[in-house]
Specification:
Elements lengths: L15 H16 L6 E8 L2 E7 L2 H13 L3 H8 L3 E3 L11 H7 L4 E9 L2 E10 L7 H51 L3 H15 L3 H13 L14
Antiparallel strand pairs: 1-2, 1-5, 3-4, 4-5
Helix pairs in contact: 1-5, 5-6, 5-7
GO molecular function: kinase activity; RNA binding
Organism: Nocardia transvalensis
Keywords: Kinase, Transcription, Transcription regulation, Transferase
């Protein structure tokens, strides 16, 4: 289980079981590493970087360097959609002061494997070790397999967010339909006229259509709008 509580959860915060699954993958990778080595996942979004899973606190500190400098093996692995492996940071001149700051944390070797969301690289599965040349072919193969598993988890998170957005849209549509039905009865008009009245009132009062519709339904019925069919408990 990751040890640091400061990790970013901007990517999967609404899906706790996926957060835990990513943590578990990182923990399994870390157990396959040499002594005192660590693993983590660095997410890249909107020109920023943040650690979303870490087997040790130093991984989060490296993520802060990457986010601050916008440079490092992790950054380049996403930019190039390719593995970036550094056998020994002591002889590295790329990435501004990243090598010096990582060395100060006791890191000598780094291995960053890109993680895709669909066809787009969005993160890296990263390894850090205090020894040079710490990651052999067997470890790199483990990382490649683990990165694919994390990709499936990120895809599941993406689908879950899309499903939640669809659920909210359908729920809003159901509430609006209920309000339109009330207005049709109260104003003795057709559906189009009732909807146009609701839309005009929404614009006039600068209130979202679904919010105004929910208020109408609640005021008339004395209870919150009836949930859409897929939200009804027990269905």
């Amino acid at each position: 289980m990751p040890e640091d509580g400061r990790r970013s959860r901007a990517t999967t915060a609404v899906i706790p079981h996926i957060d835990q699954a990513v943590d578990d993958v990182v923990a399994l990778v870390a157990r396959a590493l040499p002594r005192r080595a660590a693993a983590g996942v660095t997410m890249r979004r909107a020109g920023a970087a943040a650690t979303i899973a870490a087997s040790a606190p130093l991984v989060v500190r490296v993520g802060e360097i990457v986010g601050e400098r916008r440079a490092g093996p992790e950054w380049d692995a996403v930019a190039a959609a390719a593995v970036v492996s550094v056998p020994d940071l002591a002889g590295e001149s790329r990435w501004d002061d990243y090598p010096a700051r990582a060395l100060a944390l006791g890191i000598r070797s780094v291995h960053s494997h890109p993680v895709h969301d669909g066809n787009t690289p969005v993160a890296t599965l990263d390894l850090y070790a205090p020894q040079p040349d710490a990651f052999d072919d067997g470890i790199r193969q483990t990382v490649a397999i683990s990165a694919r598993h994390i990709e499936r988890l990120l895809h599941a998170a993406h689908l879950s967010r899309m499903n939640e957005q669809l659920r909210q849209a359908l729920s809003s549509r159901s509430t609006i339909d209920q309000a339109v039905g009330i207005l049709m009865g109260r104003r003795h008009c057709g559906r189009e006229q009732a909807f146009e009245f609701l839309r005009a009132a929404s614009q006039h009062h600068n209130v979202k259509l679904a919010v105004l519709a929910a208020d109408i339904v609640t005021r008339v019925s004395g209870s919150a709008p009836e949930p859409a069919h897929f939200d009804v408990p027990g269905r």
